[in-house]
Amino acid sequence: MPQKISILELYSQLPKKNCKECGYSTCMAFAASILEGKTKLENCPYITEEDRLRVEGLIAAPVAKLTFGKRRPLTIGEARVMHRHELKFYNPTPVAVEVPDSLNEIQISTAIKNALEIKVERLGETYGADAITITCSGETAPYARAVRQVAKSSDLPIILNCPSTEALEAGLEACGKEKPMIFAATRERLDPYVELAKKFNAPLVLADKDLGELRLMAKKASAYGLDIALCPVASSLAEAIRNQITVRRAAIENKILEFGHPIIGIPASLISSVHSPEEFWWRESLVASALLFRYADLIILRYAELETVLPIITLRHGVFSDPKIPAKVKAGLHELGSPRSDSQVLLTVNYALTFYLVSGDIDRAGIDCYLLVAETGGMSVLNALASGQMQSRSIADLIKETDLESKVSHKHLIIPGLAARLRGEIEELSGWQIFVGPAESRDIPQFLKHKPS
Ligand code: SF4
Question: Ligand 1, closest atom to CA 21?
Fold first, then answer.
């Protein structure tokens, strides 16, 4: 694991009392948990402030984290590894949507409303746009007006995308205390943008097509103690991905400090010659997904509608989930809607994706029922059957443990179509009549309509 310090080295820095006051049974377990990012040094009350600061320097992520936004702070960066299986990825890549200052007041209101209405449901969580980027057309007054309107109408963190020092200063003032992120200082305007970032205590994005120049700019801006992010400018998707991999590898594997900052991806800058707005939408979504997959820590989208954002958030969910923790829900009896004693009882597994697909399809059909959720270690039906995690005996036991017979006036259980082969055994062991349901959860409502009661 590419840490600056090993578990044993970190352990040697701890008080070694094994007193359990940190919540871990030994100092060694505490050290392992710190390196996995699950706990913090300050949870050990016996580490002096001086030691804490020294050790924190040793265990810091090679990619710094950056936080912007005051009312709804957003943190990006803090990458520790190149590959998810080595540890996990932290701080899922936020999606910022763009509002140009060329829009009039009503159009800006509509754009903000659209951004706030984006909702993507995934495994029981709801996601949407994470930030708003206000793009400047070059004029100071319209920019300040647009920034003021966005800051007033939404609490999403703000990114000021502005090529003019004067307009940027006006935008920063219009943000009040909101702590926006500045996008972006080029080599030509580095000095004035650094001055404004210092003055307003705002994180600063640096942009250049030459990685060597970007490194020099990062060195200069870091010397002022600024929080910075990097935007390696490219003219094609292949070049953008190559740049992002180079920057991240330089930070994590080669420990080049100037590259140890979050990466900002701008998909629209890599899209040209489209034939229709629809083509731009799907291409932006595709390019954003590719950039996210290769280390972009924040994506700025031009077209912000559900169809662009949905695939990106779905991919993000997969990339940033912890590979060591199965996605599972609580096993047992779940009530969907307001089931009565004559309501149906269906069986599923505790793999989160399966559970939310099944419960979502039932919920959308407006069906009140009981859902019996088997403990399969977070495995889907087929995997659980193949590995022996889903067995007739455990399902018969679950019927008893959940006291189903006291809740319903019948003894009918609908099992997933993929588990049809368990039917006879479950009937024998439980005394319940087993019905084999459909293989796909979307067919459950139709199945229930025709099931004999
Ligand atoms: Fe060790 Fe400190 Fe945890 Fe006690 S509180 S077990 S000394 S790490």
Answer: 5
Buried b (16+ CB within 10 A) or exposed e, 187-199: eebbeebbebbee
**CA dihedral of residues 321, 322, 327, 328 (deg, nearest 10):** -140
- The token pair at 250 is 């330089």
Give all strands of the β-sheet with 264-265 in edge-to-edge order. Answer: 228-232, 204-208, 181-185, 158-161, 131-135, 95-100, 298-301, 264-265
Residue with CA at minimum distance from ligand 1 atom 4: 19
| Tally of CB atoms within 10 A around 98 | 19
pLDDT averaged per 10 residues, the chain (length 453): 69 92 94 86 91 85 95 95 87 96 96 92 85 96 97 96 97 95 97 98 98 97 96 97 98 95 97 90 95 97 89 92 84 95 96 93 94 95 94 96 94 96 96 95 92 69
Q: How many CB atoms lie within 10 A of CB 227?
A: 21
Instruction: Please state which architecture CATH assigns to domain 332-450.
Output: 3-Layer(aba) Sandwich (3.40)
Pocket test for ligand 1, best of 28, 30, 42 (most atoms within 8 A of CB): 30
Index of the ligand 1 atom closest to the CA of residue 26: 6
Tokens of 356: 């939310």
CA 271 to chain centre: 25
pTM: 0.81
Residues within a 6 A CB radius of ligand 1: 14-15, 17-22, 24, 27, 30, 44, 46
Q: How many CA atoms lie within 13 A of 113 on its CB side?
A: 6
Give the three-class secondary structure for 442: helix
Q: Locate the domains of the chain by residue range.
A: 7-59, 65-319, 332-450
Task: Judge contact between 183 and 265, C-beta under 8 A.
Answer: no
Hey, whose CA ends up nearest to atom 2 of ligand 1? 44
CATH of 7-59, one of 1.10.760.10, 1.10.15.40, 3.40.1190.20, 3.40.50.1000: 1.10.15.40
* 7, 19, 25, 39: residue to mutate for ligand 1 pocket, most atoms within 8 A of CB: 19
What CATH number does the domain located at 65-319 have?
A: 3.20.20.20
Q: Which of 41, 45, 23 is nearest to 31 (CA)?
A: 41
Domains 7-59 and 65-319 share a fold: no
